[in-house]
Write a structure and sequence with these properties.
alpha/beta; Glutaredoxin; two-stranded antiparallel sheet
Length: 155
């Protein structure tokens, strides 16, 4: 499990245009990893829109958001288009990153054995160290977006 004070595990994932994005691309910035179970599901829609609504404040503090799900780049692209998201949505098709960050959820939507991302928010400082970790009790629970944005803005 990734804990506060740990070096954030490195990764490279596909973005909505199928290009590679690595955590190391954001060295020197505060990074919010927003793991979400699935595009076009009510709570995930609210979550990504809440982060989008805070982009002005996050940009001022040199903080970025990376949304991570096990959805395909095509589903994430349509999701980003629908909500005019200005941050990257990344596809963890092999589920390696959700496992590395202990952000898995099994049985989403009552499908036995289906592994998706749980709703987990990780804040990584400019030096690549995990400074905050929030994990939902279940995928229907939302984080306190204001406190996450405020915390990230102080790093």
């Amino acid at each position: 499990m990734v804990n506060i004070g740990d070096t954030a595990p490195a990764f490279t994932l596909k973005t909505t245009d199928k290009s590679d994005v690595s955590l190391s691309d954001y060295s020197g910035q505060t990074v919010i990893l927003a793991f979400y179970p699935g595009a076009f599901t009510g709570v995930c829609d609210k979550e990504m829109c809440a982060f989008q609504d805070n982009m002005g404040k996050l940009n001022q503090s040199n903080s970025i958001v990376l949304g991570i799900s096990v959805d395909s780049p095509w589903a994430n692209a349509e999701f980003a288009r629908k909500y005019n998201l200005e941050f990257s949505l990344l596809s963890d098709l092999d589920r390696d990153v959700v496992k590395a960050y202990d952000a898995t959820f099994t049985g989403l939507g009552g499908i036995d054995g289906y592994v998706s991302a749980n709703r987990v928010v990780i804040v990584i400082d400019k030096n690549g160290i995990v400074q905050h970790r929030w994990v939902a009790e279940n995928p229907g629970v939302e984080p306190d977006y204001d406190s996450i944005v405020d915390f990230a803005s102080t790093l």
